[in-house]
Amino acid sequence: MKAYGAAIFDMDGTLVDTLADLYDSVNEMLAHYDLPPRTLDEVRRFVGNGARKLMIRSLPADK
User: Fold this and answer.
1) Catalytic one among 10, 34, 41, 62?
2) Which entry of 10, 36, 41, 47 is 20 to 30 Å from 18 by CA?
3) Looking at the whole model, is its pTM more than 0.85?
4) CA 14, CA 31: separation in Å to the nearest integer?
């Protein structure tokens, strides 16, 4: 059996439905900075291209 040094998982809904977890994470970050929460539909639209992009897209436009 061949051993691998790393595993990469695509967790944006392709393999596992993680939308609820992403929604919670986004709103936890926003609450930490006293920013208004995002809806589940908003977070769904922001998903794609990694966690950094998700958080940037989640910020209010004026921030």
Assistant:
1) 10
2) 36
3) no
4) 28
Q: Using a CB cutoff of 8 Å and minimum separation of 24, what contacts does 29-35 make? A: 29/55, 29/58, 30/58, 30/59, 35/59, 35/60, 35/63
- pLDDT above 90 (res 59): yes
Residue with tokens 């900075």: 33
- The CB density around residue 14, as the number of other CB atoms within 10 Å, is 9
- The answer to whether the beta carbons of residues 47 and 54 sit under 8 Å apart is yes
Query: Is 10 labeled as catalytic in the residue annotation?
Result: yes
Tokens representing 55 are 């958080």
18 touches 12 (CB < 8 A): yes
